[in-house]
């Protein structure tokens, strides 16, 4: 084989770690187009006065369904889903801002509420997850939902999400180590910070349980659905 052919074959079979991925190989465009087309059909078939009616309502459900499945299976929330939904949420409300007659059909919540929900959730969830050690995907998911649902509804949805998550995690911990051990572990975890040297920290296996991370996309889904139905 000639040197030129050898170099050509090597270049084809080598994947450089620093090479930029091809945009077409990622599902940004597929997900965005699917959400818009599906949302138009959704808004045309279902009553738009429903909380999750309109194009935005379909995007919310598509985003939650996609991220829930991927978070449960891979413990990851992909950027192509959250970024696409964030842009769509802002875009729908920009259109509705200049074409108010389309507002209900688009499922718009108002440009101010959309921006407040997206950017406000981004700031709040970033602080919460910085302190708790959560993942950035959960922050982006909350921000994307904020642009689609608006400030008021996303706050309710997140409140319900954390209530459901807290209850589920408490049940898991009780099932794993029992109610008394859970109480002692929580007491010692808080007490060792308030009175170091007087109260011993919980044992390592309990610390692992208390710091265990769970996929939050399913709880976000439950929170949004509860907020939509109430």
Question: Your description of this structure?
Answer:
The chain is mainly α and 230 residues long. The chain has one domain (25-229). It is 75% helix and 0% strand. It is built from eleven helices and no strands. Helix 4 (79-98) runs antiparallel to helix 6.
Q: In terms of topology, how is this protein built?
A:
Layout: H1 3-13, H2 28-45, H3 54-74, H4 79-98, H5 103-106, H6 111-132, H7 136-149, H8 151-177, H9 179-194, H10 204-210, H11 217-229
Domain module tally: 1
Kindly state the number of beta strands.
0
Report the C-alpha radius of gyration, rounded. 23 Å
Beta-strand residue percentage: under 5%
- Low-pLDDT runs of 5+ residues are 3-25
Structural category = mainly alpha
Shape: elongated
Oligomer state of the chains in this structure: single chain
The residue fraction in helices comes out at: over 70%
- Characterize the main sheet: none
Q: What's the SSE pattern?
A: HHHHHHHHHHH
Average pLDDT metric:
81
Distance between the termini: 71 Å
Total helical elements:
11
């Amino acid at each position: 084989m000639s040197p030129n052919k050898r170099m050509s074959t090597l270049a084809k079979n080598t994947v450089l770690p620093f090479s930029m991925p091809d945009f077409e190989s990622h599902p940004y465009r597929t997900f965005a187009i699917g959400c818009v087309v599906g949302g138009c059909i959704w808004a045309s078939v279902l009553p738009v006065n429903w909380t999750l009616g309109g194009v935005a309502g379909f995007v919310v459900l598509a985003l939650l369904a996609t991220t829930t499945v991927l978070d449960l299976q891979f413990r990851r929330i992909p950027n192509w889903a959250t970024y696409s939904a964030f842009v769509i949420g802002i875009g729908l409300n920009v259109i509705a801002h200049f074409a108010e007659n389309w507002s209900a059909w688009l499922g718009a919540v108002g440009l101010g509420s959309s921006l407040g929900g997206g950017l406000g959730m981004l700031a709040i969830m970033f602080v919460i997850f910085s302190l708790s050690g959560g993942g950035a995907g959960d922050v982006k998911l909350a921000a994307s939902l904020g642009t689609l649902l608006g400030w008021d509804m996303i706050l309710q949805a997140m409140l319900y999400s954390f209530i459901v998550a807290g209850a589920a995690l408490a049940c898991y911990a009780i099932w794993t180590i029992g109610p008394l051990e859970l109480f002692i572990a929580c007491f010692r975890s808080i007490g060792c910070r308030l009175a170091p040297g007087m109260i011993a920290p919980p044992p390592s296996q309990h610390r692992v349980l208390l710091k265990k991370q769970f996929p939050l996309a399913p709880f976000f889904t439950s929170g949004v659905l509860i907020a939509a139905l109430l």
